[in-house]
Specification:
The complex is a heterodimer.
Chain A lengths: L2 H20 L15 H23 L6 H11 L5 H22 L1 H15 L7 H20 L8 H7 L1
Chain B lengths: L1 H12 L2 H17 L5 H8 L8 H18 L1 H6 L9 H12 L3 H27 L11 H18 L4 H15 L2 E2 L6 E2 L13 H17 L19 H23 L4 H16 L11 H17 L1 H7 L5 H12 L6 H6 L1 H24 L1 H8 L3 H20 L2 H20 L4 H24 L10 H40 L2
Antiparallel strand pairs in B: 1-2
Helix pairs in contact in B: 1-17, 2-3, 2-4, 2-17, 3-4, 3-10, 3-15, 4-13, 4-15, 4-17, 6-7, 6-13, 7-11, 7-13, 7-14, 7-17, 8-9, 8-21, 8-22, 9-21, 10-15, 10-19, 10-20, 11-12, 11-13, 12-13, 15-21, 19-20
The chains are: A mainly alpha, B mainly alpha.
């Protein structure tokens, strides 16, 4: 499936979902002629129209790209297929941080985040890995909690240990 | 005299000067890191500007942009890898000079040309934006609607690639902007019971996710390791060399001026155009590509000019013509400031502060450009896995500071995925960001106009500014459609002979 077709189908699904959600917007006594539902409905229709063009272009294999973009596309095609799973893995570590933060607290979570990303990005498994993680945890905690005065979560575990 | 008095007051009673210098330092360091563009360097700081005075925040972000333009030339010259896109043209002769043992001279020329380009750009910024302030009084809700549509159509059609993808990105941006309470009746839309969405989606969350996080995702797994062992010192050009560089720097400044004013133009196009023109007008064109000093001066003057002149359409009409100015626009919006004709009337102190801060950053660039070189070299040598970890930690921590909300952190991660998919599918970012930023203004001014006219659309035809802006928008769409069709035909013509070859070997 080429990029135009895939993105066209994805946008078509988005337009459909958005239109469905727009239909649930309630009316109000203060409504003007256009109303709160007006713009969302127009946008859903517009996106569906643009998505259909992309789908048709994808099906016909019509590529409206510049000569430079052709070259770029050739480079893109050379990208390994593992790129998306790898990028998703990166994102997953970020998501794990969000889950861990209320439990482990900020300094521990941020240290684990730095170590996990470094490992994921193939850092050497030597003394520098824990050193960088601990340094990062302390540095960010000092920067945000002390210097900027932003109370990052102390975490259930951290609070239990010190209470 | 009033302006001078205001500048004196601003410089003595606000944090403009420290902000300009901090922004400059951050910009040079961020720009020096390969793969971290000026817009990403700015986006990383965006969450921290929430608690600042508006003028301090704007100066900080604008100074980052100025610093990043010079910072980008450091790895371009030293390791043949431009730190920012606009430093790509500097690689050609800058790296050649480094190979000849003239790295310090190349860096000095880059710094000096960047200084001149930035200063020229600042003069142009001040002289070209001020007269537009008279427009403020003539603007009505209908004009603002026209302005919003113009911004979206110009950016969607001029950011390169396909018009359909540009428009689709703008529509998705507008969709994101409809989340939260609607601007007239106050009805909640697309909030799905999530309290964090009641106030709408903060543009800064979209910017950080789409620009910064998606870049880290794209670079994930990259294994480049740069090693730079030699000790290098910046050598500013001598008087004789300065005189030899005048022509190429002038060309760079002029190209930078025009590209800064052109939506979607940007520093990289200006740099390459000025490189070509400098070679054409040079007395020694044969030296280009072989370590020509003019080949470094022209692109560096150009991309630094753009860093200032690209603010002209932003301040005058609220149209960001590059990713970096889109982030700056985010900074304005965070503080409830809307760039455009009224900005000069209502927030003259912010505009004046921006001029002053930019001046301080440009002058400071000469000093910090020299002092920070060892730090930049040290940073470039750091292993990429640790840099990725620290940058992600900075992004996620910074986003949490906005509203102490883990939902926002999760939202940024989701926007990172959106940005990654857009990169892979060839969708431009700028229309999406602009849709998010302008969505509220477009909808509220459209509906407010209809309220004023009792639902009669002829109100838009009665405002000559709105008519003019909408006609120009229409012209941009038609022009881009024609361009896309021509390119599609050309692509098919190129493909035909290939097909014939394959079927008839």
């Amino acid at each position: 499936m080429n990029k135009d077709l895939a993105s066209g189908l994805l946008l078509l699904a988005l337009a459909g979902g958005y239109f469905w959600a727009a239909e649930t917007i309630p009316n109000s006594m203060l409504d003007d002629a256009f109303g709160p539902r007006g713009l969302p409905v127009v946008l859903a229709g517009l996106l569906a129209f643009l998505a259909l063009i992309l789908v048709l272009r994808g099906v016909a294999g019509l590529r409206t790209v510049t000569a430079d973009a052709v070259a770029n596309d050739e480079e893109d095609d050379g990208e390994p297929d593992a790129a998306l799973p790898r990028a998703l893995g990166f994102l997953l570590i970020g998501a794990a941080y969000v889950v861990a933060l209320p439990w482990l607290g900020y300094p521990v979570s941020i240290a684990l985040l730095i170590a996990s990303i470094a490992l994921y990005e193939r850092a050497r498994r030597d003394w520098r890995l824990p050193a960088a993680a601990i340094f990062g945890g302390v540095l960010f905690w000092l920067l945000f909690n002390k210097l900027l005065g932003v109370a990052q979560p102390s975490g259930v575990l951290f609070s239990a240990l010190f209470s | 005299m009033d302006s001078l008095g205001l500048i004196w007051t601003l410089s003595t009673t606000t944090w403009i000067i420290p902000a300009a210098l901090i922004g400059l330092v951050w910009g040079i360091l961020g720009g020096a890191l390969p793969g971290i563009s000026a817009s990403i360097t700015m986006a990383l700081l965006l969450p921290f500007t929430y608690t600042m005075e508006p003028v301090t925040a704007i100066v900080l972000l604008a100074s980052v942009y100025i610093g990043a333009e010079y910072g980008g030339s450091i790895p371009a010259i030293l390791i043949r890898t431009p730190g920012t896109n606009s430093a790509a043209a500097t690689v050609i002769d800058g790296y050649e000079m480094k190979r000849q043992g003239r790295a310090g001279e190349a860096l000095g020329i880059s710094l000096w040309s960047g200084f001149l380009g930035s200063m020229f750009g600042l003069v142009m910024l001040v002289t070209m934006t001020e007269p537009l302030s008279w427009l403020a009084l003539a603007f009505k809700p209908t004009s603002y609607f026209g302005l919003g549509i113009l911004g979206l159509s110009v950016i969607a059609s001029m950011t390169g690639g396909s018009l359909v993808k540009g428009l689709a990105a703008a529509v998705v941006g507008l969709m994101i902007a409809t989340v939260g309470a609607d601007p007239i009746a106050g009805i909640n839309r697309f909030t799905f019971g999530v309290p964090e969405l009641l106030g709408g989606v903060e543009p800064v969350l979209v910017m950080v996710g789409v620009f910064a996080l998606s870049e880290l995702m794209v670079q994930s797994g990259a294994s480049e390791l740069y090693e730079l062992k030699e000790k290098i010192r910046v050598r500013l050009p001598s008087w004789d060399v300065m005189k030899r560089l005048k022509r190429s720097q002038f060309i760079g400044c002029i190209m930078g001026l025009f590209e800064g004013l052109t939506p979607g133009g940007g520093g990289s196009i200006a740099a390459f155009l000025s490189y070509n023109e400098a070679r054409r007008w040079s007395k020694e064109p044969e030296t280009f590509g072989k370590g020509s000093i003019e080949g470094v001066a022209a692109p560096e003057a150009a991309n630094n000019t753009v860093a200032s002149t690209t603010l002209i359409p932003l301040l005058s009409f609220g149209i960001p013509s590059s990713n970096s100015t889109a982030v700056l626009l985010g900074g304005f919006l965070i503080h409830g400031l809307l760039p455009g004709p009224r900005l000069f009337e209502q927030n003259g102190d912010v505009v004046m502060g921006l001029y002053l801060g930019s001046f301080v950053a440009i002058v400071g660039q000469l000093l910090f450009g020299i002092l920070l070189l060892p730090v930049c070299v040290w940073l470039v040598n750091r292993p990429r896995p640790y840099l990725a970890g620290f940058i992600l930690a900075l992004i996620l921590s910074g986003v949490y500071t906005l509203d102490h909300s883990l939902f926002h952190v999760g939202f940024v991660l989701a926007m990172g995925l959106v940005g990654y998919l857009m990169r892979r599918a060839g969708f431009p970012f700028l229309p999406l960001i602009l849709g998010v930023v302008l969505g509220h203004m477009v909808e509220s001014s459209y509906r407010r106009s209809l309220v004023l006219s009792g639902g009669d659309h002829r109100i838009f035809l009665e405002d000559p500014i709105a008519v003019g802006l909408l006609l120009v928008s229409f012209g941009f769409i038609v022009f881009s459609l024609g361009r896309d069709i021509r390119e599609a035909r050309r692509a098919r013509q190129v493909a035909k002979p290939l097909e014939l070859k394959e079927t008839h070997p």
